[in-house]
Automatic annotation (TrEMBL):
It is a peripheral membrane protein. Residues 67-287 form the Radical SAM core domain. InterPro entries: Aldolase_TIM, Elp3/MiaA/NifB-like_rSAM, RSAD2, RSAD2/Viperin_antiviral, rSAM, rSAM_sf. It comes from Scleropages formosus (Asian bonytongue). CDD domains: Radical_SAM. PANTHER family: RADICAL S-ADENOSYL METHIONINE DOMAIN-CONTAINING PROTEIN 2 (PTHR21339), S-ADENOSYLMETHIONINE-DEPENDENT NUCLEOTIDE DEHYDRATASE RSAD2 (PTHR21339:SF0). One of its GO terms (biological process) is innate immune response. Keywords: 4Fe-4S, Antiviral defense, Endoplasmic reticulum, Immunity, Innate immunity, Iron, Iron-sulfur, Membrane, Metal-binding, S-adenosyl-L-methionine. It comes from the Eukaryota. The keyword Iron applies. NCBIfam families: viperin, viperin_w_prok. GO terms for molecular function: 4 iron, 4 sulfur cluster binding; catalytic activity; metal ion binding. This is S-adenosylmethionine-dependent nucleotide dehydratase RSAD2. Belongs to the radical SAM superfamily. RSAD2 family.
Amino acid sequence: MLLSAQIQLAHFILLRCVSKLQSIFADMLGTACSWMGWLFSPRTRAAGHPGARAALAERDSRAAQRTPTPSSVNYHLTRKCNYKCGFCFHTAKTSFVLPIEEAKRGLQLLKEAGMEKINFSGGEPFFHEGGEFLGKLVQYCKQDLQLPSVSIVSNGSMIKEGWFKKYGKYLDILAISCDSFDEDTNKLIGRTQGRKSHLDNLFKVHSWCRQYKVAFKINSVICSFNVEEDMRENIRQLNPVRWKVFQCLIIDGENAGESALRDAEKFVVDDEQFQAFLDRHAEIQCLVPESNLKMRDSYLILDEYMRFLDCRGGRKDPSKSILDVGVENAIQFSGFDEKMFLKRGGKYVWSKEDMKLDW
């Protein structure tokens, strides 16, 4: 009986101690909340209290360092290409392509981090394995990861109808790069291979996109060879969902500089020339202009090793691979300006189900 009474007494004392500690903690929490409310109140800020200023500065610093969400990612899965465009800023310095299971693992990591749209690019993304590698990734992203939008940027020269039959249903948008509707101009730029007509390929792929219900898009780089061209009639005829118009961009080590495989200096147009081109085509409703200022920091670019590329310094400085350090760690070194991404219209209706297109 004595032992039982002692146990009950000990249990009672323990309960009292826990209750007292809870009360003390509640008082401390209430005091802290009151202090924080005072610290960040408009009256305190207006008074310029040193403690408030320091706390606000720390809070703003933390907000500025917030990890951006990789909602839209451009994965340059290969550097190899069958074209030799003189202004290309992702040139073929290596033939490396990730094993497909590693590529899928990286895409899964990106989905978990908030990716909604993936854009496959190159080089020429259809170059590797005749487009089979690309097709499997497109299918994986739409079918397994269930991403709202899966897109590709291609020069169009290596696409076969069989690819559309097999993988077209998994693809939302196919963008074909076309800088001129004059075949001689395309040859001067380097957007050609042998005797094949780039424009014939463009119109053929356009018809396949319509047949297999893939949204068709055009990308054009405006340079010294095409800046005076009037493309309005052809753009109206093709009627893409978007016509992305880029100002020729210089990236040190890629298309300029001693270690570069290209010298794009002769292709460069200034802001005034670029704006004149935009003004000439202003009536085209699907036109989406992108100056160098908008383009440099507002894209999340993954290279063939799945490293984010920071273009802020006029180069493409790589982070560590997301496969090694994760997305959150690697994206801190991407130089990505999320505000500029939103300002330039980086988020739009990018799922073909939502476009309500008249096929």
